[in-house]
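Appendix B. One record, verbatim.
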Amino acid sequence: MDCERDDQLAMNFDSLLAHKLVKIKNEMHTHSEVIFRLVQIGNYLGLKSWIGKREQSADSYGGMRFSDVSLQSLPFKNLTKHQKEKIQQIDVIWFDKLHIPRYAFEVEETTSINTGIERFASLLDVEISTANQLYIVAPKSRERKLATIFRKESTFIGHPYFMENKVKLIYKEDFEEFYNERAKEEKSFSEVELQQLAVKIEVE
């Protein structure tokens, strides 16, 4: 039943968005707004979104509750309690039609970057195919903080996760410009164009 409900929600959301990006009028650039943009882009690309459990329970944007536009359950089997607790808090995960995770995003404006990376590590334990499609969306002002965390937290560097090679950074400013240009002009775009926004996190 959960899969049927998820499919119905996805169809309703498809209809609502009319297969194009919704223009955003305010310029507050909040955590919730970035999540909303990610969900819309995922929908445009034919991918369904899981939104973090905390955001589902507390957040909305543009009159839409995140609990209404998110997959209702994580389509993973045999998760340990620890894995479920970590993965379900990832801000946005995009799944394809086979319920395979394709991309994962953590929006880090003021919150702990360490926590987001730990969540990614748990996702990799369950589905290694997401390697190299893990993204932190953060303001340019947090780039140095992110690099420092990777240098100092040896858990993330090298064996077994090699997170320095798997996690990439998308500047929030670039992401917003990418979205706004395509929403304004109703320009088509591909996954490759989105991937090209990402930069490698310099740890040296």
